[in-house]
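Annotated sample (chain length 643).
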Amino acid sequence: MSASPTSTPSFRVLSLIPPMTQLNTPYPSTAYLTGFLRSQGVDAVQADVALALVLAFFTPEGLGKVRDCALVQSEAERSACVNYFLDHFERYQSTIAPMVAFLQGRDATLSHRIAGRGFLPEGPRFASLDVYEDDGSGDPLAWAFGALGQQDRARHLATLYLNDLADVLRDAVDSRFEFVRYAEQLAGSQATFEPLAQALGAAPTLVDTTLQALTLEVIAKHQPQLVLLSVPFPGAVYAAFRMAQTIKAHHPQIRIGLGGGFVNTELRELTEPRVFDYVDFISLDSGERPLLALLEHLQGKRNVQRLVRTFVRNEAGAVQLMNWAEPDVPFENVGTPTWDGLPLDRYLSLLDMLNPMHRLWSDGRWNKLTVAHGCYWKKCSFCDVSLDYISRYETASATTLVDRIEHIVAETGQTGFHFVDEAAPPKALKALALELLRRKVHISWWGNIRFEKTFTPELAELLAQSGCIAMSGGLEVASDRLLNLMKKGVSVEQVAQVTKGFSDAGILVHAYLMYGFPTQTVQDTVDALEYVRQLFENGCIQSGFFHRFACTVHSPVGKNPEEYGVQLVPLPNVSFAKNDIAFMDPTGTDHDTLGRGLKKAIYNYMHGIGVEQDVRAWFELPKGKCPKTTVPRQKIAKALGIF
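Output written by the structure step:
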């Protein structure tokens, strides 16, 4: 694609990752945007303020400030984790710097001391180790790491240590603080801007003032004319607005744009003008075309009416969507993501979960890339199939993808890739695998798919040969009746066969699971867990997670609830975020209680515990209220032809 006339050397665009996203690898949105803008000749830079915020606290000086906040509380106000932190403060302060260096991969030999359990202070989070049975060695983690898994053992203990400190930050400094879901209650599906406005107008916490200082630092370093704030989740919205507030107060001439997954799903009907006290532009869906239009506008080459999919506050003070019709930049031409400017050696490789598949989300730094834009299936009734990130399906050639992969490996020096597609298409993955093998490009990769029959054992073996180490996919509710209602396009037996093919090829498998779908009964839930138990028992899957179904206004369930046997609860007048919508299900099933049992069961299954026992044991239902499963005990084994 030829360079755009939109850019001039003096006009710099700074893309920022606001807190909180991930600690082990950069969220990829700024890498995509920066790579694309540079391909258009734009002076584009990026920074990860989310990582910077966490690292600012994980220093001896940072912990000293946390202690000062904790000491302001009365003893009666302090939580157990805060009391433990204060009692062992000197140990925390002396161990924090070497522990961070270890998690950043800069001091591997420290693992000996950490693994020995005498180096780090062990606060309340370490109680989680009590669930593991001692094998007689006096070591509750021996089953997971044995005699030689010292690095991983130490990383798990160091992660518990960090989680203890996150709890202290939440209880002593800012009640909204979490590593991922930071202040998300202020933004997710909030009908009005008022809760966020009140929080932004309140006296700043230590987290806020630290974030403000970091924001001013990065602005001073890069001197941008346009700042782009990417907010993928509700847990990044509050911090993004705090950063925008800081920029406006100190550098009012800088223009600010807001975009990302949260905007694309929740702000599509925005009418609240106060939002534009903080940002100047809010763009929907894929950012490439709206950004090119915005850059032309800011440089006087396009009037505001010709912005693309972009909200502004007009001269009358009202919110207006400018939606000049221009084609999106084809996926083949969006350029190669770049991580230039991001501190790749400072991310923390964590080990939250001992399960070998589940750990991939927090362990190690992965280059994030997409095989295709959108979803080739786009029929699932729980999904936002009406929105651009699902509905507009485009692919790039295998040659282009491997070109991008080689460029990224050369830039980062790292060969791990996570393909972050909604559902990577089997045809494209096969072509990618063949091209990787043909060009002898050696990478390790994993991604997300539909467990459809096209993924034969032969294809699974080919993908493994090309470097595939793991696959995640949606089984959702393991019930053929509900899978049909969901328009998932798969059956439980088919999922068993596909996942077994991956597992036999040495590829780890994670299943996304769901409960609380419309008309799901207690019997459906018990049967679904039995199917999942058998999938673990037969080596089809190694990991899973149960999510509570949420009805969104953009999904087929939200648009046509009568087809799914439910009635929507009317929403209040919405001027800000609109996404989740409550519904009334005539079955009256207590999904909260069932959900606790499902999550307890899946956690244990992932650690090899309780796979043989009756699934009813996991549910805390009144006696006689938990029905026996109707699924034959060897159902999955028979589907696999091994019984």
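Annotation: Residues 1-8 have pLDDT under 50 and may be disordered.
Annotation: The chain is about 40% helix and 10% strand.
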